[in-house]
Design goal:
By secondary structure, the protein is mainly alpha-helical. The chain has helices spanning 2-9, 32-35, 41-54, 69-78, 86-97, 105-114, 119-128, 132-144, 166-183, and strands at 30-31, 64-65, 152-155, 158-161. The protein has a single domain (13-145), classed as Glutaredoxin, CATH 3.40.30.10. It is 54% helix and 7% strand. The strands form two sheets. Strands 1-2 form a two-stranded antiparallel ribbon. A two-stranded antiparallel sheet has the order 3-4. A hairpin with a 2-residue loop joins strand 3 (152-155) and strand 4 (158-161). Helix 1 (2-9) runs parallel beside helix 9, helix 4 runs antiparallel to helix 5 and helix 6 (105-114) packs antiparallel against helix 7 (119-128). The two termini are 31 Å apart.
Length: 184
């Protein structure tokens, strides 16, 4: 993946900030055909598949979109747990590769347990919605800096939106590092 390669080559530190991508999607999900009614979705699907391939990410043949709110709350909690950062890749895979309904609490518990997180604690977080306020803050921050899609890379008021090839992200990081050196 591009971000992992950047971390290996540059002093890059990432922090997940959640974004409301299609927050009106019902818990049972929505078919992509319904979501893009009247449009040929095959070119959209192919474009996404190509972008993911350029970034070194797998991409499955999903037919539905699901509400990601609970998954985001689980991710916010996981970030507070030792080894919890693994949840983000697992959620990506579940949604984009395996077509799992990531608004389903039981599915989210399985994902959490698969990366070594405590399933009972994860269930409590989801049922009690104890990280809802944190995700609300992230959504507000995302809107405040002008995020329009995922992923978005943001630092020092510079933004790169969307799944990007490594070379684009490398230029972004090099620009940031050059600006930091000028200020030192």
């Amino acid at each position: 993946m591009s971000i992992e390669k950047l971390k290996a080559n540059y002093p890059v530190k990432t922090r997940w900030v959640h974004f409301p991508l299609h927050p009106d999607t019902p818990a049972e999900g929505r078919s992509l055909a319904e979501m893009f009614a009247g449009r040929d979705i095959e070119p959209i699907r192919q474009r996404l598949k190509n972008l993911m391939a350029e970034a070194g990410l797998p991409y499955g043949e999903r037919t539905h979109t699901y509400n990601s709110r609970l998954a985001q709350e689980l991710g916010a909690w996981a970030d507070t747990q030792p080894g919890g950062e693994a949840i983000h890749d697992a959620l990506y895979r579940a949604y984009f590769v395996d077509a799992v309904n990531i608004s389903d609490v039981d599915a989210l518990i399985e994902i959490a347990e698969a990366v070594g997180l405590d399933g009972l604690a994860a269930r409590a977080v989801l049922v009690e919605r104890s990280f809802s306020a944190k995700v609300d803050e992230d959504w507000a921050r995302s809107r405040g800096v002008g995020v329009t899609g995922v992923p978005t890379f943001y630092a020092n008021d510079l933004v790169v939106v969307g799944c990007q090839p490594y070379e684009t992200l490398e230029k972004f990081v090099q620009h940031l590092l050059a600006g930091h050196e000028e200020k030192s």
